[in-house]
Amino acid sequence: MTAAAPAEQYDLLAIDTLLSSDEKDVRASVRQFCDSAVDPHVAEWFEAGDLPSIRELTKALGDLGVLGMHLDGYGCAGMSAVEYGLACLELEASDSGIRSLVSVQGSLAMYALWRWGSDEQKAEWLPRMAAGLAIGCFGLTEPDHGSDPSGLRTRARRSGADWVLSGTKTWITNGSIADVAIVWADAGEDGGIRGFVVPTDSAGFTAHPIEHKLSLRASVTSELVLDEVRLPESAALPGVTGLRGPLSCLGEARYGIVWGAMGAARTAFRTALDYSLTRQQFGRPIAGFQLTQEKLARMNQELALGTLLALHLGRLKDSSGVRPAQVSAGKLNNVGKALEICRTARTILGANGISLEYPVIRHLTNLESVLTYEGTAEIHTLTVGQALTGIPAFR
Fold this sequence. Notes:
This protein has twelve helices and eleven strands. With 395 residues, the chain is an alpha+beta fold.
């Protein structure tokens, strides 16, 4: 029986040589955490459709330093975009739901506070969120408005010195276990689309878990209902009005997905490679057949190219900055290629490819959600198209 592939076969193009020692240390720390705290349990969480110890897990992630790790101050680690990307890759190599937990906490809820919040809002929430002692969610998507957030129906109206919010949000990660929700609402003549910091124990706020998911099952997904939720003036994010606010947060989260998708793809590829070296058919390992080698070569090529693309965008983000269309190109490419890699890996595993004894089918079904959240493939295609032609084609 042939042994599993040695480590150097996993990185044929020596991409590791492009990383600094600090970047490798961050990656190793997150990988060690996932090996001990996530991987032994995640298949059971997925099968059960539950994260039974999510507060303990979030606290452990806070202790690790990955919650809001790319932000400065307020207990955040202040790490680079590449280091954050590598963390996302390792988290999603375990499961997309775990990366989503970290991404929604740090790149959506915390980033909204950090970028657009008042000093008081930041001081109240960011240290606890960075430590994993408070969980946040991000309320933008609605039952009738996903790709077109400009049409959102959640309303914010003035009532004396207060704001009153009414509306419904759906497909909200962390929603039913969150301590604070960043909710985007249309304030009409009082400022258009505004962000609000909503403690989830506010009167009129309820959250209900979304059941019967067949994807991202190791993740809490919820519907938020705001029924005349009264908030003080200080609950409004003062730093931004209009869609620029939520879209800036989505850009941060999408950047993490560019890396994370390659984590899911890496796990699928390595599983398929190892399996092909040990699975015997017709008296030899299936890795010795030309059709299997063609699949492995193509998977390795797309994994390497996607990882290099993520690294390039990370280097841009850390130096001159990265444009939204560049992040869209990264998400569009990497999630699509990750799906192809997982589907090909499934064929190499044969019937075993649909068993939760192996991680491939779990990653494959998770990526079906990743393909459409934080912007569908169609929206990112049109974003890239507009960047190339200068002509918007969304309507």
